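During the practical work, I selected for study one protein's amino acid sequence and its backbone structure tokens, as given directly below:
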Amino acid sequence: MSIAETTTQPGALAPLTIDVVSDVVCPWCFIGKSRLEKALALKPGIAVEVRYHPYFLNPWVPREGMSREQYLTTKFGSPERYKGIAGRVVQAAAEEGLTYAADKMTRQPNTLDCHRLILWAETSGQSGAMKQRLMELYFTEGADLSDREVLVKAAAEVGLDADQTREMLASDADVTRVENAANAAKEAGIDGVPTFILGGVAAVTGAQSPDVLAQAIEQVANNREQFLAEQRAKNAARA
């Protein structure tokens, strides 16, 4: 599954694909998305196609979600032990102009339905906007993303039909598709997010700075034919 947004320049080469593997409840994915957008602004001459792929950071969280306190206790030992980590995230988010309001979060959601919304928003070119809105709701506003009406309202805000979205969320539409895509990412060896796969030949893991991302994007864009040729040669040697 790929969820794509394309930025092109007239007469330019085929867009460089940037596959973003991330989860909407991963704070570094929230920060990483902002840094990627800043990196792309640093290289306006490079046409890109950004494609979003699902990842389940916490696949053990039940479909109905759980209390934030229970989640932090299960994952970190206690809410208090998470405070040091949260402080670093708050600072990093603020440097990007984002708000990470840990004190507002009371529920930890399972993100399967969030990824379904992002997929459905692809048809109208709003996958990035959908992802951004869900992350803002969770990290900045403390919304409960396991609440179906919260998701329906968010979908409507980016142009999806509310009644149709409500009906689809109540069904199993695309559940298997999203689960298979998330599992495929882990089977491919991705165990940390965000991961940015550039042109299908190079991967950058973590919320790297805009400068680092921009340099990597430029390098791959300028040398992608060479990278692909080398990759084909390696595959042929294995055959």
